[in-house]
Amino acid sequence: MADKPSRALVLYGDGLARSVDPSNTHIHSLASVATCGFLSLPHAPPESENERIVREFSHLLDASEAYTIASGLKAKGSEDKISTLSERFMGLKGALVTDSSSLTSFGKLIGLDVLQLSEICQKSDDSFPSDATATELLKLLGFEGGKCLDVTLFDSVFVHIDGDNVGMIDSLIGSIMRMAQPGSEIAPRLHISVVLSYGFVTDKDVSVFNVKTSQEGMNLAFQGLVPRQSYTMRGEKTRDDVRDYCPMLVAQWQDAVTRKDLVDTLSFEALKKLSGNLVIPADRFIHEVAFKLWKAPKYGA
């Protein structure tokens, strides 16, 4: 545990998990020093792509209740029941950086300050665009000129990147890791999370990207004794809508704070075999991040 609250940068590659390949060296380099795992999502209803984007993001912030209200799935008048992130997490100041108009509306609904990703990228110079963009993002968290300022605009910044932009995340990670090298003033205060989702899923994905442990070959007499995995539970109640396939991939790193596991590449196969965190529900992610910011109690062990 750090001796001061951290500040969190979350790079969310929406639908980009399939696009990562060996050439994305910075993504894999981060995974190799991070603690990694899966974030399980519930089964999806029939929905448009814009609805999927907002719904999955809402789970990352444990704000699915707000999503159902905003989507008109709950009775009119329930809008007053929507709690902001600040109200739920001890005054947490959060920002969302995105070019998605539907996500912009939802972010504002749950109390996030919303900034345009394209505008931040436009401040970049021609030679090192990722360095300039990384610099702007770190400034939002009070990191400037290699220093950690006492006053910061935000405790946490969520950067939503979709489309064919896995290269952008890769180069951003490279720039940020250079600026937050171990031994720097920034490194022990910056908590980085990289989250990659699969986006729209198909029937073929059910068997290819399944996190459920196979019970093939197990003696039938013992199959009923296998306990339910913790990600399928909420408290003492079973989560009946857990999707066992196409979870989000997550890697988290903070110098001298997070534990390193055995993962060396950010891929489904590597995480299933070697990750330290295994599977947690996606709606617990924000609680894990908020704990590092001293804005929430520890989730889990």
TrEMBL record:
It comes from the Eukaryota. PANTHER family: OS02G0135600 PROTEIN. This is AT5G11810-like protein.
